[in-house]
Amino acid sequence: MKGGGFRIYAICYLIFLYAPIIILPLFAFNDATVIAFPLSGFTTKWFAEMTTQPALGQAVKNSLIIAVSASVLATTLGVFAARASTRYDFPFKGGIMGLIMLPLVLPEIIVAVSLLVVLLGLGVNLSILTVILGHVLICTPFTIAILSSAFQSLDRSLEEAAYDLGETAVSTFRLIILPLVMPGIISSLLISFTISLDEFIIAFFLAGTEVTLPVYIFSQFRFPQAVPVIMALGTILVGMSILLLTIAEYFRRRGLARSGAKDTGGFL
């Protein structure tokens, strides 16, 4: 009885979680501007109509620039922070790492408003650059969490052997450590890219006149005739997010298999 009840709960939970995602492509291919059942017919015109909207193209361009920049910067910072936290002991290590990871538990609206007040107080004009800074702030804790696992699984004897053979710290990091943690770095890049591409609140506050893709989608829901196009766009974004997360999980597990570390849970 208990097992049956849990099974029913799990099925209901999965339906509640994934039903909106399943409904999204149904209306993206529906030949009607009204989002309602029954469906009118099959069409791909909403996907073709996306190519005729210059504002959408500019929003996609802005989001890609922000996502690529934020993922590279956040992963770079994550490499340094994860390496320092797993390899060295230094004063106030716990407190410093706690502050770095704090954006994971802070509401994004608080982070966005705080950044807005600070940037305006410093006289910084809102632009793509300010959004990149905000996204680096929220993506860096995720990269540290991923990369810390990769660095912790390293065999220190390999590093010590490189030193014994005359390698410097820089060359050891480049030739030995970096290749071993590369699956974690790739996973970190993909996760950060996905988070940045889908992020709305910080972009809404810090973008200024430069519209990102999530902000564009939000603005278009005011116009009923634009909803089917947004459904088509959302279908593409969901598919791309699933693909990126799948690739990231593949590289994460590949890194664990290479190092022989225990898998304590992943993204999928």
UniProtKB/TrEMBL annotation:
Its main location: membrane. Residues 60-248 form the ABC transmembrane type-1 domain. It comes from the Bacteria. It is found in: Cell membrane. One of its GO terms (cellular component) is plasma membrane. The chain crosses the membrane at residues 6-29, 64-84, 96-122, 129-151, 171-193, 200-219, 225-248. InterPro entries: Bact_Polyamine_Transport, MetI-like, MetI-like_sf. It is a multi-pass membrane protein. GO terms for biological process: transmembrane transport. CDD domains: TM_PBP2 (cd06261). It holds the Pfam family BPD_transp_1. Keywords: Cell membrane, Membrane, Transmembrane, Transmembrane helix, Transport. Belongs to the binding-protein-dependent transport system permease family. CysTW subfamily. This is Spermidine/putrescine ABC transporter.
